[in-house]
Design goal:
This protein has 253 residues and is α/β, with parallel strands linked by helices. It contains 10 helices and 7 strands. Helix 8 links the parallel strand 5 and strand 6. The protein is elongated, with a radius of gyration of 23 Å.
Amino acid sequence: MGTREAAVSTGAETGAMDQLLDLAWQVYDSQLLTPLERDWLEETMARVAAAIGPIDVERLESLAKEVRARKVLAALTDAGVPARYAECSWGTWSTPRGLAGICRQLRRWSGAGQETTALLVGPTGTGKTHLAVATMRRWVEAGRGGAMFVSAGDLLRRLKAAMDGGPGAGETELLRVARARLLALDDLLAGGGRVTTWAAETLSYLICQRYAEKLPTVITTNVGLAQIGELVDTRVSSRLGEGMVVELETGDH
């Protein structure tokens, strides 16, 4: 298939050219271009502005798509998603047999209404983190901001370190996480071992606070609701039970 081109002209095509120029500016303003891409785009924009010569529409649209992908990747990285999972999406997810229905529900989940939480339960290697990041990716691709990804263990270690830095420092960090517009909390109670009173109270506050404020939260864990109630708080297991619960029992994903 040949490259699509549009001749720059006036009259009926002016609106289309305006749209192309607007698209070009969006790409240009992203500041995510290589030097060669920037040079080509500047030449393209000059052609549109001067109404001379053909415009390679296909290349412009392809570049815009690539830049959007870079912006999403940058947003996920800034949100704390580890490099290993930053490319995870629904497009790279292979739905296990028997879970097509619940996966369709999860793809539509937005954290609105009563289901403000999505709890992904299953043993190591079942793709829980992949699904959490895929959900975040859809949020970012929709143009929403304020997403955050953090593993429960890393969060607790960060809060401990912040507390050592002075009065109120740990509370400030905890509030920042509690107020994220979308939170992906990975590996809650990893291993299902003993939890200190401080850790249980901290996790309970975080989850219940987000529940009260109706802030969407995606949580991955390898323990069930009953064990979450035993190790953390029955209020937490009750809150999570009101949301979407996805049980993954497949082999290594």
